[in-house]
Design a protein that fits this description.
- By secondary structure, the protein is of the alpha/beta class.
- The chain contains 8 helices and 8 strands.
- It has helices at about 20-30, 45-60, 75-85, 115-135, 165-190, 215-225, 230-245, 270-285, and strands spanning about 15, 35-40, 65, 90-95, 140-145, 195-200, 255, 260.
- The protein has an 8-stranded mixed beta sheet, sandwiched between helices.
- Strand 4, helix 4 and strand 5 (about 140-145) form a beta-alpha-beta unit.
- Helix 4 runs parallel beside helix 5 (about 165-190).
- The longest helix has 23 residues, at about 115-135.
- It is globular, with a radius of gyration of 18 Å.
- Mean pLDDT is about 90; it is low at about 215-220.
Length: about 290
């Protein structure tokens, strides 16, 4: 296929986490066809290379492959080093990776997996790549949340679900954390040309949560699947936030179906956002806040 050099994203480099399947792969495909240089992150090298071949075929451009389990902080740090060595610029970071586990799992760092992967991974990766994003400005950070954030509550006394665990409660908390992180990052980057927005992709037909599904998911997902969005439809808002010219200066927003939307009332609690930021920085071992003057 002839390479696309004149698309609306030509000359821009986009890094997508969880880019091997579902919404992440569809996001990468959509941006590749717009002329962007893609870099995708996946856990399994074979699957990640396979996705990269598909994206190259669709867009005709360069696709870089990075392999890491983002629930592991040491792997996030290694990954960030490899990305900084390979990519001279990052115009868009799409924090797409996420997961759901019905039972409590613990990561190599001794943290509850849902919180570690869905919130701490994008928090740490974004922090480690922030200087490169700022150097590439105007740049964008796009974080995939969910309308589950509306049911979320940040339990600062039991963030890791050690006292009481529910897969749904852990997931809802992590998706609210995504929005709080997005808004706090936007506030901290006000003096820069890096924007930070979050989104709800819709209910999408993917293998999400299949590794450890809950009883309700096992029973009802097969019946709901015909009514769910296709991955490309679910990726549409991510693609829009990553590429739309009119959003270059829009920051600190929450989007659904390509349009701004109010998130839950507690997501606008600036004190909670600042506290979550500090707790997160402590948990991932950041010695200084990820701010840019």
């Amino acid at each position: 296929m002839e390479q696309i050099h004149n698309g609306p994203m030509a000359g821009r480099t986009v890094l997508v986490t969880g880019g091997t399947a579902g919404i992440g792969r569809a996001t990468a495909l959509g941006l590749a066809t717009m002329g962007a240089r893609l870099a995708i992150i996946g856990r399994d090298r074979g699957r990640t290379e396979g996705a990269a071949r598909e994206i190259r075929a669709a867009g005709g451009g360069q696709v870089d492959v990075f392999v890491a389990d983002l629930s592991s902080q040491s792997q996030v740090r290694r990954l960030a080093g490899e990305v900084l060595q390979s990519l001279s610029r990052i115009d868009v970071l799409v924090n797409n990776v996420g997961g759901y586990w019905n039972t409590r799992h613990v990561t190599a760092d001794g943290l509850e997996r849902t919180f570690a992967l869905n919130h701490l991974a994008p928090f740490l990766l974004t922090s480690l790549l922030l200087d490169r994003l700022t150097q590439s400005a105007p740049a964008r950070v796009v974080t995939v949340s969910s309308n589950a954030q509306a049911m979320g509550h940040i339990d600062f006394d039991d963030l890791q679900g050690e006292r009481s665990y529910s897969g749904a409660r852990a997931y809802n908390q992590s998706k609210l954390a995504n929005v709080l992180f997005t808004y706090e990052l936007a506030r901290r980057l006000q003096a820069t040309s890096v924007t930070s927005n979050a989104l709800h992709p819709g209910v999408v037909s993917t293998s999400f949560g299949a590794e450890d599904p809950g009883r309700v998911q096992r029973l009802f997902a097969p019946f709901m699947r015909p009514f769910m969005k296709a991955p490309a439809q679910g990726a549409a808002t991510s693609v829009h936030l990553a590429s739309a010219p009119g959003l270059e200066q829009v920051t600190g927003g929450y989007f659904a179906n390509g349009k701004p939307k109010r998130s839950s009332k507690c997501s606008y609690d600036e004190a909670a956002a600042a506290r979550l930021w500090q707790v997160s920085a402590d948990l991932v071992g950041l010695t200084a806040p990820a701010t840019t003057s």
